[in-house]
Amino acid sequence: MKTLDGDFLKRLLERDVEFRKIYEAHRECEKRAAKLSKKVYVTREEEIEEKRLKKLKLEQKDKMAEVVSKYREARE
């Protein structure tokens, strides 16, 4: 996904409920995965959870890219 400028992102977050939910879920996964990756020692379950969170984060990023693409096409 191309980097979003602040104004465009702000408008999307304000106007599109679906995008806002995906964005918030993406940020939450990012925070939780980062917290796990900072641990010196992780259990097998934590390692699996970190991988799951990273995959979920990528899925959400793809969904956000679809929404952004839809908005950009509509603007052209």
- Unreliable stretches: none
Report the mean per-residue pLDDT as an integer: 90
Helix content: over 70%
Which of globular, elongated, flat, extended, rod-shaped describes the shape? elongated
Oligomer: single chain
The SS-based structural class is mainly alpha
Total number of domains = 1
**Which strand-content bin applies to the residues?**
under 5%
Radius of gyration: 15 Å
Order of helices and strands: HHH
User: Helix count?
Assistant: 3
**What kind of sheet is the major sheet?**
none
Task: Give the distance, in angstroms, between the N- and C-terminal Cα atoms.
Answer: 18 Å
> Using DSSP, what is the number of strands?
0
Secondary structure: elements and pairs:
Layout lengths: L5 H10 L1 H21 L6 H32 L1
Helix pairs in contact: 1-2, 2-3
How would you describe the overall organization of this protein?
By secondary structure, the protein is mainly alpha-helical. The longest helix is centred in the last third of the chain and has 32 residues, at 44-75. It contains three helices and no strands. The chain has one domain (8-75). The mean pLDDT is 90. Helix content is 83%, strand content 0%.
